[in-house]
Amino acid sequence: MEFFLISMLNGVTYGLLLFMLSSGLTLIFSMMGVLNFAHASFYMLGAYFAYQISVKIGFWPALVIAPLAVGAIGMLVERYGLRKVHKYGHVPELLFTFGLAYLIEEAVHLIWGRSAVDYRVPAELSGSLFKIYGTAFPEYRGFMMLVSVLMLVSLYLVLTRTRIGLVIQAALTHPDTVEALGHNVPRVFMLVFGGGCALAGLAGVIGGNALVTEPGMALSLGAIMFVVVVLGGLGSLAGAFIASLLIGLLQTFAVGFDGSLGRLFAPLGISFPSGTFLGELWGLTISSAAPVLPYVLMVLMLIFRPRGLLGTRDV
Amino acid sequence: MLEVSDLHAFYGKSHILHGVNLTVGDGECVSLLGRNGVGRSTTIKAVMGMVDAKGSVKFKGEEIGGLKAYQVAHKGLGYVPENRDIFPTLTVHQNLLLGMKGTKQSGRWSMDDMFRLFPRLQEREHTAAGVLSGGEQQMLTLCRTLMGDPDLVMIDEPTEGLAPKIVELLRELFIEINRRGVSILLVEQKLAIALEISQRLYVMGHGQIVFEGTPEDLRANAAIRKEWLEV
Ligand SMILES: Nc1ncnc2c1ncn2[C@@H]1O[C@H](COP(=O)(O)OP(=O)(O)OP(=O)(O)O)[C@@H](O)[C@H]1O
Ligand SMILES: [Mg+2]
């Protein structure tokens, strides 16, 4: 029981963190039609900036400054990079974001080195929030959840209640028409790109210390983020939200589940002796299969429903 | 008010407009006629800065060629796209809000005006625009552009595929637009309505203007109608 509750909470926390990344990626994709391969690199930048700032002045200023700095870099990238490449079509844009991801990784190597940096959870939040049957739930997890929920609510309010939100919603599908009505759509693109990057940066600030801050973090989380976007349906925010929670829970539960696939069937009176067909597979422990589960899910989704859960267009 | 001279437009490598010349005077209603594919939509898109174009476009005496679409809109040019290009997931009210260039309502048209002209839109004010009927969507597209208070509005095939009753409503709106001192450049298929409401007409063929004159001139000129308009 406590395994279930704690895993549930951990899974939701991880899922919300994934959504902070996939929401930005989804908005950028819907609006500009470009899959930003460098998106997770902005997550990494957020974590490294937060580390640097928290070493100098502390975690709380970092929580504000790092996402803003990452957002500003995002805007510059859109304004002086992507916008210039845009007129040559989508393939050059994709290549551009690939190059950018590589560039950011090299920059991180140069400045902070190749191994993980010591970016820690702030002392104020390193206790445990509560205990369920002796298993503790860390305060910092609760804080991550709080920040994510606040961000989710603000994103929703901005998109549905403000004028710029309406312009963004309309420009997602009809950018030319919106521009002809007198709205500065290029500037909206820049803001959305910057905003998406700032969200990724924020995810880096609160996730980098809970997980790990190292040069490989962009690649490892980036892969999962693409799984989320494909599962949810390219371009669908609601889809990305559902898929984020799904992957978050799936991974958390799978890692914590000790037992083999075969044992799942034991209560049904079915057993798989090691001699039978695919005997090894049934003996595989679920926790060791955990890292590949999301990819299995993605491949299945691509085969049976290429548009994803809530997507409207095929990949 | 609007002076277009020697306008050339391109989609990639294909050269669509070959030197279009036309003018629209203050408070005038002018129609642009022609068969499908001759470049009427391209002409107004080029004026709006939405396609690659060369040549001169002057609005209120100022050169606007080369400006971006949103800048052209701020100069006072309104564009009503063909195919009832509403924002389907937003409500009628939100669609109208997006027509406004600022947050304050000002100028010739208010939301109440729109609702008085088209009570149907008021009934559906908080409905997603995507579920409106074709006629309602056309009204919405027009009203949305008017909310931005243009001095000249370019309307692309507003009556296409609509029931006669709704065409009649739109015709009344065009007259009302003109009455409020707004110039109109209308792209139309239906010769009858164009002849009735325009002061001048242009006929286009293969990316050029092939006829210019008053409704009487066009009525009298069967050869032009036969060569460039009738199917
Ligand atoms: N986006 C585009 N890319 C390439 N060619 C285009 C594009 N849009 C239009 N064209 C071509 O340009 C020509 C003129 O098109 P335009 O839309 O201006 O015609 P039109 O007179 O408005 O007719 P209709 O609206 O009835 O199709 C056509 O031959 C069309 O095939
Ligand atoms: Mg057309």
Task: Explain what this protein looks like in three dimensions.
Chain A is mainly alpha-helical. Chain A has one domain. Chain A has 14 helices and 2 strands, in the order H-H-H-H-E-E-H-H-H-H-H-H-H-H-H-H. Chain A has a two-stranded antiparallel ribbon with strand order 1-2. In chain A, a hairpin with a 2-residue loop joins strand 1 and strand 2 (135-138). Chain A is globular. With 231 residues, chain B is α/β, with parallel strands linked by helices. Chain B has one domain (2-228): P-loop containing nucleotide triphosphate hydrolases (Rossmann fold), CATH 3.40.50.300. Chain B is 37% helix and 27% strand. A 6-stranded mixed β-sheet of chain B has the order 6-7-8-3-9-10, sandwiched between helices. Chain B is globular and about 50 Å long. Classes of the chains: A mainly alpha (315), B alpha/beta (231). The A-B interface holds A 163, 166-167, 169-170, 173-174, 176-186 and B 48, 50, 68-70, 72-74, 79, 81, 85, 87-90, 94, 97-99, 101, 103, 144-145, 148. The structure holds adenosine-5'-triphosphate and magnesium ion (MG). Magnesium ion binds next to helix 1 of chain B.
Helix and strand topology:
The complex is a heterodimer of chains A (315) and B (231).
Chain A: H1 2-32, H2 39-56, H3 59-86, H4 90-112, E1 128-132, E2 135-138, H5 139-161, H6 163-173, H7 175-180, H8 185-208, H9 217-232, H10 237-256, H11 261-264, H12 279-283, H13 286-289, H14 293-304
Antiparallel strand pairs in A: 1-2
Chain B: E1 2-11, E2 14-24, E3 29-33, H1 40-48, E4 52-59, E5 62-63, H2 69-74, E6 77-80, H3 92-99, H4 111-117, H5 119-123, H6 134-146, E7 152-156, H7 164-179, E8 183-187, H8 191-197, E9 200-205, E10 208-213, H9 215-220, H10 222-229
Parallel strand pairs in B: 3-8, 3-9, 6-7, 7-8
Antiparallel strand pairs in B: 1-2, 1-4, 4-5, 9-10
Bound molecules: adenosine-5'-triphosphate (ATP) and magnesium ion (MG).
Adenosine-5'-triphosphate binds next to strand 2 and helix 1 of chain B.
